[in-house]
Amino acid sequence: MKKLLIFILLVHISLNYAQAENGEIVSSNDTCINIDLYLSKLAAEKNFSGGLLIVKDGRKIFSKGYGWANKEMKIPFSSNTLASMGSITKAFTASAIMKLVEERKVSVNDNLKKYFPDVPVDKSGITIHQLLTHSSGFSEFLENDGGDYERVETTEYLKRAFEQPLAFNPGEKAIYTNVGMSILAIIVEKVSGMDYEEYLKKALFDPIGVRRISYCYPELQTDTIAHGYNNGTDWGTHQSHFKNAGGGPYWNLKGNGGLEASLNDMYTWVNAISEAKVLSESTLQTMFKRHIVEEGMDGNYYFGYGCNISKSRRNTEMIDNGGSNGIYYARLIRLPEEGVVFYMVTNEKSANTNKVLPNVTQLYFQGKIVQDAFEMQSGFESPISEKIFSIIKANDKVDLEDTLLKAKITVNDDMELYEVGRRFVDNGNADAAFCLFKYFTEKYPELVVGWNELGEVYELKKNNPEAIKCYRTALALRPENPRALNNLKRIGLKN
Asked: Which of 69, 54, 73, 72 is nearest to 348 (CA)?
């Protein structure tokens, strides 16, 4: 009898799960099998590389990697591969702050003056609540931002942030900001007396058994860290770029982006959140509350604490985090009414989460791909970016400033322009990219990134003299800017 029961149990398991290589799981229901077939086909035909995790009612029904973590060494992407989650990092920063709130060491009503006595008057009243909800008035990036790997220590970062004028009055509206999240991470360090990563590990990860979510610097010998690939070209890893910059992570990235995790550790994390093992139920309700509408998103998107909240296509509640550095892409979607969590991370630019995950969710909920995201021109986070993309695509010689004015399109922040320009660069459309980044540098002349991008577009157009002018403008704004220096060196010039 006992043997019969064991046999029945084994049959049941085999009917519900198909074991992939490296101990990965694909539930053997038709939906998961179809998703697996689809992703396998993408890996073979479109160089899709990354991993997908699906959790249903707390149970892992899908966890599998595709493509390569390291092409050169022939290491496949697996459920144990560490890959950058981009701005999903903001959810961990918010969780760290709320853990300190639960410990009564911090209040969301505290203002910056409490933690930084020398903060200027215009920023002294900014609250932790406003930092958490992107309503502080800080811009998305600092002026003259030297990029993710610029060596910016705490004192210098705060100096720049506090000297930079606010984009709007605190609490007036909400516009996405990396700066605000990095300041929150600095507060975590200040209050806890620990490094940001150390606090995450001790307060959030160790108690629930998360093995490794970090910047992974230096590299762990026992782990595989996914290399990023730009349409097949090896971009390297965060760790290699940190090393070239002399260390890291630094504050242009730390706290707001770039943490790395595996599918397996993300499964542990999302379940611990769902089961209120990390933070209390009341704290989670506060974090996932619709606090303030996101500016420029047609009134359909709200900021919680470290997350976006909107409605799915099925009109159910969706708690969303996403992020990218243009190479790695990641998306975490919680659908509490439907009991489903999706986490996807990719390390190949050509087939990223913006294109793949919408198709996966269609397969999951509708059984087929109704609208193929690869055939859509969008994938933009902002409707404004979509509109600008369409305008330039139709006429890459258009006077963009005049056209936007006549169309009553207001650009809310530089990223709405930047991601459009990068799309044209990635597609090899130099004329369209030039139209965008020429306007970008006119609208945001103080941003180093625009001059670097415009310079590279000039190079695409075989106009090195103008490219050199752009790189030297970037260096005038931010001396020792590594990107501008490297570009000039590549051309064969010194700054």
From this structure: 69
Fold of 86-316: Beta-lactamase (3.40.710)
Phi (first) and psi of residue 92, to 5 degrees: -75, -35
The residues, ordered by sequence, that sit 6+ positions from 83 with a Cβ below 8 Å of its Cβ are: 50, 51, 69, 77, 225, 226, 260, 261, 262, 328, 330, 345, 346, 347
Tokens of residue 464, six digits? 């090195």
Task: Sort strands 317-324 and 329-335 into parallel, antiparallel or unpaired.
Answer: antiparallel
User: Which tens digits make up the pLDDT trace of 112-135?
Assistant: 999 999 999 999 999 999 999 999
- Mean per-residue pLDDT for 393-413? 87
The values of phi and psi at residue 449, to 5°, are -60, -35
State yes or no: pLDDT of 341 exceeds 60. Answer: yes
Amino acid sitting at position 403: T
pLDDT at 77: 96
The ranges assigned to domains in the chain are 86-316, 383-491
Question: 333 and 95 in contact (C-beta within 8 Å)?
Answer: no
User: For residues 370 and 478, what is the distance between their CA atoms, to the nearest angstrom?
Assistant: 47
- How far apart CA 148 and CA 157 sit, in angstroms, is 13
What single letter denotes the amino acid at residue 319?
I
DSSP result, 453-472: HHHHHHHHTT-HHHHHHHHH
Residue 160 CB contacts under 8 Å (≥ 6 apart), including other chains: 142, 143, 144, 152
Measured CA angle at 115 (ends 113, 119), to 5 deg: 45
The H or E element containing residue 36 is: helix 30-45
Q: Rounded to whole angstroms, how far apart are CA atoms 180 and 196? A: 15
Peptide bond into 218 cis (omega under 30): yes
**Nearest residue to 329 via CA among 64, 78, 52, 133:** 52
Class of domain 383-491: mainly alpha
For residues 13 and 111, give the distance between their C-alpha atoms in angstroms, rounded to a whole number. 53
pLDDT score of 220 more than 90: no
Q: Find the DSSP H helices in 337-429.
A: 353-366, 383-394, 400-406, 414-426
Q: Determine the Cα–Cα distance for residues 161 and 159; give it in Å rounded to an integer.
A: 6
- pTM value is 0.77
Express each pLDDT in 351-364 by its tens digit.
999 889 999 999 99
For the cut 90, the answer to whether the pLDDT of residue 468 exceeds it is yes
DSSP code of residue 294: P
pLDDT confidence band for 219 (50 / 70 / 90): low
- For 41, phi then psi, to 5°, come to -65, -40
Question: Could you read off the pLDDT of 11-34 as tens digits, one per residue?
Answer: 333 334 444 445 599 998 999 999
